[in-house]
Amino acid sequence: MSGGKETPRQKMIGMMYLVLTALLAMNISKDVLLAFITVEEGLNKTNENFDQKNEALYAKFEKGMSENKVKTEPFAKKAFKVRKEAEELCKFIDKAKSELYVLAQPELTQQMADTFQLKDCQAKDNYDIPTNYLIGPETATPTGKGVELKKKVKEFREMLFAQIPAKEQSSLKIGLLTDDIYDHHAEKKVPWEVFNFDHTTVAACMCLMAGIKNDIKNAESDVVKKLLDAIDAGDFKFDAIEAKVVAPTSYIMAGEDYTADIFVSAHSSTQNPEIIIGKVDTSNKMKPSLVGAGTPVNVSNGVGKYVVHTGGEGLQEYSGLINVKAPDGSIKPYPFSGNYMVARPSMAVSPTKMNVFYIGVENPVDISVAGAAPTDVQATLVGGGGTIENKGQGHYIVKVSSGNECSVNVAIKTKSGSKSMGAMKFRVKKVPSPQASYAGVVGDGKVSKGEIGAAGGVIPKLEDFVFDLTFPVVSWNMSIFVNGVYVDYTATGANATSQMKDVLQKVKTGQKVMIEEVKVRAPDGIRKIPGCVLKIK
After folding, report:
1. For burial by CB atoms within 10 Å, which of 41, 182, 364, 531 has the most?
2. Taking Cα atoms as reference points, which of 326, 307, 329 lies closest to residue 318?
3. How far is 258 from 243, CA to CA, in rounded Å?
4. Which region, left, alpha or beta, applies to residue 87 given φ > 0 means left and ψ of -120 to 50 means alpha?
């Protein structure tokens, strides 16, 4: 049986899964969740388009049955079997989505969940519910709904191949592979259902299942078209020649090329049609025409290869005409249209503290790239005289030692090499200095004799800072007015000396005690910090 390689759609689904695993250990932003909603809606729209195109193929079988039942019936039975099996498998997926919505949003009834939309789900970023539902409690021995889905997809694929003679199966590009898949993070092959649904968020899970339906309908279309072509065109009287647009994928990254095959379903191997991209005027149903000159498409063996470099984001639509030379020499135009979804290559660098890297401390950073697994993300630090360490699952630790600014550059590993995804700048700052406190006083303040006598020494205080840091006291001085002159006492470490404590026991009301020359050990070295002045009340 052929079809061992993954189709572009299968690869797209795998890439979507990698996006999800890159986001599992971080707080998913609203923008990312909205992107999943956009993708899911785009896939659903593509599935609707497939339904319309497939129904047009089945209509031709029905017409053929009425005109030449003997010739048509063997192929029609197979085609209608494909339709029935495809519908049942898609219904199974729809039911699984509804059940998942009920688990994610318990206030929903099953009936409400059947028409529920992802954009209204409050638990889009939850990945425990989908994992338990589709995989089960143990990834080593999956028992969830995904196991049953895998079995049904595999049986459906085998059924499709069985409808086509063995000698023609090599030309089929069905996809729908459910073999074990190599997980680069786990460094081993894992079951199909684990690779796709383990730790997958609700939002991404809905995208994946919509993508699987897309594969099903695409495979259905290919097989039914193959069965239709197997009927002798001379005996089978068609009422129209259909223009068709086939793209390997309708979901691509901005900056990549969108490729589509445009052709008529019945064509001459000795004469290529003319294919032109442009706006079509269909006011004259019998003879549609282009508005303006249009752009010609290269045609070989009856198939036009449409290639356009993408830039703008969102749903992109195009149309045109296929001009076919009729037996009488006249030119018959056949309009066509297509669409594809362009997504922006998204890169996120999210410092979990703030948009500043502090010298001498471990600055945690979360980094992810849409469409890439954490193991394929490459992050480097430019400037700051420091390092960036990958802690796994999208978590990084940045250490800087100097400078005023640095950048985190992000790239991903691809088959063709490393691809840059952009960079983000960060300011580099020293950790602020604390202020010395004694007996609870910071700066200037009044204390009682009891309070100053009970205090054990100097305590550095750094208020309202994002890191929980300690600043060990190296040394400090205490100045106090004794017998008409100021006398200095020096202590090593934070604690007051016994001599200081004796002097403090004899202070009088109104007398001032000055804590000065306080030195502490900061992340970047020894610092002198502001002292405090105590007035005895």
Report:
1. 531
2. 307
3. 19
4. alpha
Residue 124 three-state SS: coil
Q: What is the DSSP letter of 179?
A: S
Both 264 and 287 in one domain: the answer is yes
What is the Cα–Cα distance from 505 to 511, expressed in whole angstroms? 12
How wide is the angle at C-alpha 358 spanned by C-alphas 352 and 362, nearest 5°? 60
- Mean pLDDT score of the chain: 83
- CA 4 to CA 397: how far, in whole Å? 41
pLDDT digits (tens, 9 = 90+) for 420-450: 888 889 999 999 999 999 998 998 999 998 8
Cα separation values, 129 from 25, 301, 431, 472, Å:
16, 50, 42, 47
Q: How far apart are CA 136 and CA 139, in angstroms?
A: 7
Give the N- to C-terminal CA distance of the chain in Å, as an integer.
95
Is 18 a residue whose pLDDT tops 50?
no
67 and 180 in a single domain? The answer is yes
CB of 160 within 8 A of CB of 82?
yes
**CB of 278 within 8 A of CB of 294?**
yes
Find how far residue 254's CA is from the centre of its chain: 14
Phi, then psi, of 510 in degrees rounded to 5: 90, -15
Q: Residue 466: which pLDDT band, with cuts at 50, 70 and 90?
A: confident
| pTM for the structure as a whole | 0.42
* In a shared domain, residues 56 and 178: yes
Cβ–Cβ under 8 Å, residues 319 and 335: yes
Residue 37 has pLDDT above 80, yes or no: yes
Residues 6+ apart with CB under 8 A from 108: 101, 102, 116
Residues 359 and 415 in one domain: yes
Alpha helix ranges (H) inside 249-335 = none
What are the tens digits of pLDDT across the range 113-157?
A: 888 988 888 888 898 999 999 999 888 888 999 999 999 999 999
Rounded to the nearest angstrom, the gap between the alpha carbon of residue 227 and the centroid of all alpha carbons in its chain is 38
Q: Looking at the predicted structure, is the pLDDT value of residue 205 above 50?
A: yes
The one-letter code for the residue type at 289 is S
Give the span between the Cα atoms of 271 and 268, in whole angstroms: 5
Predicted confidence (pLDDT) at residue 93 exceeds the cutoff of 80: yes
Give the domain extent around 195. 1-236
Query: Which CATH number goes with the domain that contains 255?
Result: 2.60.40.10
At 160, is the secondary structure helix, strand, or coil? helix
- The verdict on 362 and 329 lying in the same domain is no
If you search the block for the tokens 């600055």, which residue do you land on? 363
CB 25 within 8 A of CB 366: yes
Last residue of a domain, one of 192, 210, 236: 236
One-letter amino acid for residue 177 of the chain: L
Cα 481 → chain centroid: 68
Backbone angles phi, psi at 414, to 5 degrees: -125, 175
Q: Are residues 522 and 413 in the same domain?
A: no
DSSP 8-state code for residue 466: S
